[in-house]
Design goal:
This protein is an alpha/beta fold. The chain contains four helices and five strands, in the order βαβαβαββα. It is 30% helix and 20% strand.
Length: 125
């Protein structure tokens, strides 16, 4: 089951770290910078068995109406990169904050959010 990783281009360093961490744990990841159709791409991924991880930060250019178009589904995980809470439309979903965590703590939150490693013998970075 692949993981769709949606992120603002300014959050690419976070996205790359998450991608490497998930791949090291045996997950297949498809990275997609958020564009004008990001809600549609997320909806399409959530219509199947895929897990979707959205990186949410102040740098994300989505408006409140854009966030409202993101379907809330069990496979949706929002990871906050800044202090505060997610956009109102995402507050009812599975969201976790990576803000102010060290790398080990952030990795633990990430693995819990995606249901752990796919390969029990893999080593996460």
């Amino acid at each position: 089951m692949p993981i769709l990783l949606s992120y603002a281009t300014s959050d690419a360093p976070w996205a790359q770290w998450i991608n490497r961490s998930l791949q090291a744990a045996g997950h297949v990841v498809e990275m997609q910078p958020a564009g004008v159709d990001f809600a549609d791409r997320i909806g399409a991924a959530l219509s199947g068995p895929d897990l979707v991880v959205i990186l949410v930060s102040r740098e994300h250019r989505a408006s409140d109406s854009d966030w409202a178009e993101v379907p809330l589904a069990p496979g949706l995980v929002a990871l906050l990169l800044d202090s505060g809470s997610p956009p109102a439309a995402l507050r009812a979903t599975n969201w976790k904050s990576l803000y102010d965590l060290d790398e080990e703590e952030a990795l633990e939150v990430l693995m819990v959010a995606v249901g752990g490693p796919r390969n029990p013998f893999s080593r996460t970075p």
